[in-house]
Amino acid sequence: MASFDKEISYSNLKDLLAKGSGLLVDVRTKDEVDRGHIPGSIHIPVENVESDMSLDAAEFQSKFGVVKPSLDSSELVFHCQMGKRGALATEKARNLGFKNARNYAGGYKEWSEKGGK
């Protein structure tokens, strides 16, 4: 697969979040998330992506308070600070069968610089 379909742009992410659809997963450390995060994201540290994304739907919803995305969901997006860990998490999710998982490569850095607007 070409890498372009594994990433989502700032504007496309804004549109996705404005619709209230999709699942945005912040894979940074707890300390990083505590300093600021993209509203509506859930926190799954990159090292936990495989185990947490392997939970059954009921366990996932109980742990994170949101519906677990289907394997063919095009609205599953991972992000970190600047893109590297988000790309790793995206690959881990794709290896689990989430074939349309994407990375917001701009990460929290780009989001905060643009003011989330």
Account of the 3D structure:
This protein is an alpha/beta fold and 117 residues long. The protein is 39% helix and 10% strand. The protein has helices spanning 10-18, 30-34, 49-53, 57-64, 84-95, 107-113; strands at residues 23-26, 42-43, 76-79, 102-103. The chain has a four-stranded parallel β-sheet, covered by helices on one side. The longest helix has 12 residues, at 84-95. The model has no long low-confidence stretch (mean pLDDT 92).
Short description, anyone?
With about 120 residues, this protein is α/β, with parallel strands linked by helices. It contains 6 helices and 4 strands, in the order αβαβααβαβα.
Mean pLDDT: 92
Can you tell me the overall shape?
globular
Describe the largest sheet. 4 strands, parallel
- Helix/strand class: alpha/beta
Share in β-strands: 5-15%
Radius of gyration: 13 Å
Low-confidence stretches: none
Number of helical stretches of at least 4 residues: 6
Q: Based on DSSP secondary structure assignment, what is the total number of beta strands?
A: 4
SSE arrangement, N to C? HEHEHHEHEH
